[in-house]
Amino acid sequence: MGSYLLFSISSRIYAIPLERVEEVVKVDRYTEIPGMPIFVRGFFNLRGNIYTMIELDELIVKENIDADFNHIIVLKTPNQEVDKVAIVAETIRNVVDLEPENFKNVPEAEDEAFKKFIEFMYVDSKESFNVLNVENILDLKEGLDDK
Prior knowledge:
About 15% of the residues lie in helices and about 45% in strands. With about 150 residues, the chain is an alpha+beta fold. The chain is globular, with a radius of gyration of 15 Å.
């Protein structure tokens, strides 16, 4: 069993392992950079550090959701001094402990982007949601640094 932060974007619910979350912040201002991939919402400054903002709906389901992103989930990374990545979220729901027997593999019918960035689906009698593959999301940042 592990603890996960649940958050939503539009009607989709995502989960991220709590040990991969540095903090949740509100960001009033961020900077968009022309020529960046569509899933990069922009960059923001947090206590003198510049973070890349990843927009999951653009990345995973290829939809542009014009939602009010009220929260930024700052990820813990193996090299925190260099890799500064955050995920935009519309709503932070809560922290939950998940039972491993409720993790389901992502169906083969899902498209490649979905399978790459969703590690598991979680299904129980109350709700279902997608558990993020944080490592693959962090790999995106490395690709951006090469540009």
